[in-house]
Amino acid sequence: MNMTFERVKKQIAGKPEKVARYIKFCSAKKRKYGKAVKRCRKCGRRGGLVNKYGLRYCRQCFREEAEKLGFRKYG
Ligand SMILES: [Zn+2]
């Protein structure tokens, strides 16, 4: 398993000053733009996003939702 932020935080939970340092230097950056900001509104996936018309669905969810939203298949 990979070392995620939460897992490491749990490992050093007993050492307060270490935790404080860890949070200060290792937290994920808050971003205003870029890939990490945009997520699928249904499943939270970051890849394959359909941003057109402000849909914000990933391509997998778009496939499921498209018909309900009024999209029709042509060709
Ligand atoms: Zn999705």
Describe it.
With 75 residues, the protein is mainly α. It folds into two domains: 1-30, no CATH class; 33-75, 30s Ribosomal Protein S14, Chain N. The protein has three helices and two strands; from the N terminus they run H-H-E-E-H. It has helices at 5-11, 16-26, 59-65, and strands at 49-50, 57-58. The chain has a two-stranded antiparallel ribbon with strand order 1-2. A hairpin with a 6-residue loop joins strand 1 and strand 2 (57-58). It is elongated, with a radius of gyration of 19 Å. The N and C termini lie far apart (44 Å). The relative contact order is 0.10. It binds zinc ion.
Kindly summarize this structure in a few lines:
The chain is mainly alpha-helical and about 80 residues long. The chain has three helices and two strands.
Write down the oligomeric state: single chain
- Mean residue pLDDT: 91
Q: Write the CATH homologous superfamily of the largest domain.
A: Ribosomal Protein S14/S29
How would you characterize the largest beta sheet?
2 strands, antiparallel
CATH topology of the largest domain: 30s Ribosomal Protein S14, Chain N
The CATH architecture of the largest domain can be named as: Irregular
What string, H for helix and E for strand, traces the elements in order?
Answer: HHEEH
Spatial order of the strands forming the largest sheet: 1-2
- Measured on Cα atoms, how large is the radius of gyration? 19 Å
Kindly report how far apart the N and C termini lie.
44 Å
List the topology elements.
Layout: H1 5-11, H2 16-26, E1 49-50, E2 57-58, H3 59-65
Antiparallel strand pairs: 1-2
The protein binds zinc ion.
Zinc ion is lined by residues 40, 42-43, 45, 57-58, 60-61.
